[in-house]
Structure formats: C-alpha cells, structure tokens
Amino acid sequence: MRRIYLDHSGTTPVDRRVADEMYRFLIGDNFGNPSSHHYFGYSVKQAVEEAREKVAHALGASREEVVFTSGGTEADNLAIHGAVTTNLKKGNHVITSAIEHHAVLNTVKALGKQGFETTILPVDHYGMVSVEAVRDAITDNTTLITIMHANNEVGTIMPIAEIGRLTRARGIVFHVDAVQSFGKIPVDVNELNCDLLTISAHKIYGPKGIGALYIRKGTRWKQTLMHGGAQEQLRRAGTENIPGIIGLGKAAELATAGRESESNRLKMLRDRLINGITGGIGEVQLTGHPELRLPNHASFCFEQVEAESLLYNLDLKGIAASSGSACTSGSMEPSHVLLAMGMPPHLAYGSLRLTLGRDNTEEDIEYFLATIGPVIEELRSSW
Ligand SMILES: *Cc1c(COP(=O)(O)O)cnc(C)c1O
C-alpha cells in the first residue's frame, strides 16, 4: 500500500547521512568515554566538540553555550529548573503561555504546586501570545519567562524577538522552546533576544533521545536536575550519548544548509493542501495564524467529525496524520491549545494536523486531497 507520512511535527525519519555518521560511533574504535585521558577518550571528545560547534553555528551561538540533553523535554525541564533555582533570591514568579508544549506547561504547573507564583498567559484565537500581555504580567518578582517560538499543534509563530527585548530590559531570564521552528524558519539566539533555547534532534531528521539547551554566556547557572559528574561544564551530569550527539550535530548542519529552499518548497505544498481542504470541504476551518505559521504546517477543525475516527480512516488509506487531541486514560481529550484559542469543544474534538517534510511530494498532496473528501463525507453521514 502507498504510505504517506504527514506527521513530521510528531517525529521525522532519520536522514541517511545522519545515520551514517552515527554508525561510526556505535562500532569500531570510537567507543571511548570523552572524559577519559587517553586516545580513545580524546578522539571521541573531539568529535563531540565538533558536533557542539555545528549546533552552535546553526543557532548563531558559540560552542560553550550548548549543553546536550536527552531531548527537548529534558532541555525544557533543565531550562526552567535551572533558571528558577539560580534566581531564587531574586524572586519566584514564572510566566508562560497556555499553548506551550506539555514539557514546559507541566513543568511550570509543578513549580506552582511547590509554591512558586505562576502566570499562564491566554492567547488570541490564532494561538498568538501578545507582547502587551507579557509586559503586563511582569512583576518585580519575575525571574523567568518561557514562551515557545512556534506552536506544535497549530503552527503559529510567536513575537519572540519583541518579548526578548522586554525581558532583557528587565533583567529577566527568557527561555524559548524552538523545537518546532528550528530547521524551518531562522532561529538565531541573538535575533530572538533569548537567554535559553531548546531544540530536539528527532524533529529535524536526527535520532530520538537527544536534544540541546542553549545557555547564553553570562547567564548565572546552578547545576539542577542531574547531579553527578562534571560533564557539560557542570550543567548536565552523566556520560554523554555520543552517537546521539554526533547525529544531532549532523542533523543541525543539514537543517540549516538546505533550510530556505526546502521551506519554500514545503510552503507551496502546504498552501495547496490548505486551499484544497478549505475550498473542497464544507464546514472546516484552518486553525492557527493564516500567515504567521510554520511553512510545513496545516491544521484544521472539522464540524461533525471525531478526530479519532478520522485518523483511523486515513490510516486505513495509508495516510499518517495526527490531531490536537491527546489520548488520556482511554478517552480522547480535546487539545489544551485549541481550547485556549477559544475553540468550542465540539470543534476541538474534530481537529486534524498535517505536517509536511522532506519526503513529501506534490503527488502525496494530490493523493491526500482525493482521499480526505470521501472520508469526511462518510464520517459525517454516520454522525
Ligand atoms: C517534540 C517537542 C518537545 C519534546 O521534545 P522530545 O525530544 O520529544 O522530548 C518539546 N517541545 C515541542 C514544541 C515539541 O514539539
């Protein structure tokens, strides 16, 4: 059966060139511990530092500012815990938004339960965080603001650089989850005015279980979360995931080298998809911002359709897609992002997310558009 993968925001296949580099660190002589003082350690240490340089270069950062973690989730946790722990004497107020990834949102909520003051900012119906709302929420007690660069469910791109100007003027640490934007739109830590920034390898054709946190030089930092050895300049203890780090380095290099032309290609496919769906099917709306959205991201809410059945029926036709709903204890819960955008629950239950990637072609889009119409019609006829 023809299989079409339209879930690149969920994860991406590992690029062949990434896998080839990783392989060299899984077999043969490249097995050393980079902390060791002998040939085996030194050579691996050098490869790790080259990978760190590639990640730094892709972000407009310098090598010492990149800390490898076990993924985007850990980098988000590390950013938040590191910033609030280091600045406890200054204050205990954290600001975030209602549409963050759970790696950020649940971490901030957990801090709230521990006695931290937390503000979870609302968003508009495009899923956009307003700069004014951030400004109004800042108090003398605020030590950390964490806002994502682009939303994973609706693709909306946030006014990060402007928020960064605010936090800089007030001396507040600013963390940005750039897992979805990295490799698709420019991500430069100096243009974004952020102090901390999260990326993850498996969203950019790298392996799962590896990510990085950018920590701006001069950001006061205490070791939190992972206590142990002196790895990663005392910012993240534990023997490094060498093949993962090598893979992230290569994936970051490839993601930035071909970004512009690939993003333009994806944008055209995305717009064909959006126009085909909103023009060809009744009672459907695009979710997220119509223009300020990721180039590979198309998301919708359908009337009289249940996401679970829609995904199941698309999968039967060989189409892998996703929805904003999460399966919690056996039942589908509408997405916190769509609800925060003011989407009525009955519509939020009918969400569909299509995220494009390197392997998608025009034929994929045409096949999808030819398939979705009848599927929706059938689901609605038995509503
Ligand atoms: C996928 C994702 C994460 C989590 O990254 P993992 O490497 O899977 O832990 C965090 N934030 C966003 C926006 C994501 O899309």
Structure description:
The chain has 383 residues and is α/β, with parallel strands linked by helices. The protein folds into two domains: 4-12 and 259-381, Aspartate Aminotransferase, domain 1 (Alpha-Beta Complex), CATH 3.90.1150.10; 16-257, Aspartate Aminotransferase, domain 2. The protein contains 13 helices and 14 strands. The chain has helices at residues 16-23, 39-59, 72-86, 102-113, 131-137, 160-170, 231-234, 242-257, 259-280, 307-316, 336-340, 345-348, 362-381, and strands at 4-5, 66-69, 93-97, 117-121, 142-146, 173-177, 196-200, 211-215, 284-286, 297-302, 319-320, 326-328, 331-333, 351-355. The strands form four sheets. It has a seven-stranded mixed sheet, with helices on both faces. The protein has a three-stranded antiparallel sheet with strand order 9-10-14. Strands 1-11 form a two-stranded parallel sheet. α1 packs antiparallel against α8 (242-257). The mean pLDDT is 96. Pyridoxal-5'-phosphate is lined by residues 71-73, 76, 101, 103, 148, 152, 177, 179-180, 200, 202-203, 211.
